Amino acid sequence: MRAYTVSPLREDLPFGVRIGGLTRELLEGKALRDEIDRLFVEHGMIVFEDVEQSDEIQLALSSCFGPLKEHPVKGVARVDGARLPGVIEIRSRRGRGIVEVDGRQLSHWLPWHFDHCYNDELNRAGVLRSVERVEEGGITGFLDGKALYDTFPKDLLERIEGRDIVYRLETQYDDLRFGRPARYRTIEPKPMPAGFEEQVAAMPRAIHPAVWTRPTGEKVLHVSAYMAQGIAGDETPEGCALLEDVCQEINRLAAACSYHHKWRPTDMVIWDNLRMLHCVSGNDPDQERLMYRTTIAGDYGLGRWETAPREAANVDAMA
């Protein structure tokens, strides 16, 4: 009898598994590490339950899936970079970065997106754990791009498949051009780290396909509303209307293709950034939330810069 458990994420979902009972000692075994990686490739995300909450076990779990990658934005807070390379801090501070969605004010709300869309190189995955939780909200949603492709309206899919999407590093809520909720406005802009605007100015726009085919043969609809600028070669009113239709349809279908995780102190989650989209529900602006994330290196090789970077050395350091 094995010392850990594996079960479906939810019986009605075509993606995701739960793994319970892992320890640092168990994670030293190569056969187990290989099995965890196999489950990840097959299912797209894993919720690790009842695991020790420590930096060391987060790094041990992360190493099952490949080497860590530094976050491409230098201004993002690191967690003891000398001891924990690749671990970043995602903090929602009181009274900052507030948006109103459907009449409710929320801090650290994020729409459906994939990470590092603004870069020519993506990353294989992220591993997330909750360090400080909020009483309500703070829920992370995960949406399967395979399921999206299979359920998307065929006429709309035919119009977007084969098209590329242009992305730019824009994090303010007012910069959200596509897929906005019907009732939406910015209350308080996000604080920006020192040097952020200069770094953004040095980066060209990035381009990624709206649909791509995995090595295993399945097609994935992979469009991030967050930071999207338009359709490459068609940033016209007609092209923007098409991208808006796609993003709003993703919002509509999310109810049937997504999983929303309410964090517990003993959880860690990994998701396939090349397959899944994710979002954050936001939380009461008077409460603080802190997450630690590691980023797993790996790319699908389909992204590119729109133009050559103006400061190649700096961009190479970010990639």
From TrEMBL:
GO terms for cellular component: cytoplasm. Signal peptide: none annotated. GO terms for molecular function: 2-oxoglutarate-dependent dioxygenase activity; metal ion binding. The keyword Cytoplasm does not apply. Gene3D superfamilies: Clavaminate synthase-like (3.60.130.10). Pfam families: TauD. Residues 12-295 form the TauD/TfdA-like domain. InterPro entries: AtsK-like (IPR051323), TauD-like_sf (IPR042098), TauD/TfdA-like (IPR003819). Keywords: Dioxygenase, Iron, Metal-binding, Oxidoreductase. SUPFAM superfamilies: Clavaminate synthase-like. Belongs to the TfdA dioxygenase family. This is Dioxygenase TauD/TfdA family protein.
